[in-house]
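Hi C.,

You asked whether I'd gotten around to modeling the 124-residue construct. I have! Everything is below, sequence then structure, no commentary in between.
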Amino acid sequence: QVQLVESGGGLVQPGGSLRLSCTTSRFTLDDYAIGWFRQAPGKEREAVSCIKRKDNSTSYGDSVKGRFTTSRDNAKNTVYLQMNSLTPEDTALYHCAADAVGSCLTDIFDYDYWGQGTQVTVSS
């Protein structure tokens, strides 16, 4: 059952930017760590970023460090993924997921809720 809703994906040229959003009407996102994951065709799902529950500290995968930033807007019950300096290698289906443990150390398979994903395509 889909609990989270992602938006903001699309087609962008190399070097461009996109901001993805993750929200839900079913629970308060600040009570969960929120991870962003991506999966390209023929590849395994990859952890992109995570923002911890409550203290909002963040972590990033090596391939996106320095280019992507995740943040929360609690008033809007939304978590964002700002993606800059995009390359074709960033092309993938991007999902957000919620983890009640909240530490960003949870195995990908143990996240509690997932969205259906939003497609990001980087191409000239």
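If it helps when you're writing up: Residues 7 and 21 are 5 Å apart (CA to CA).

Thanks,
B.
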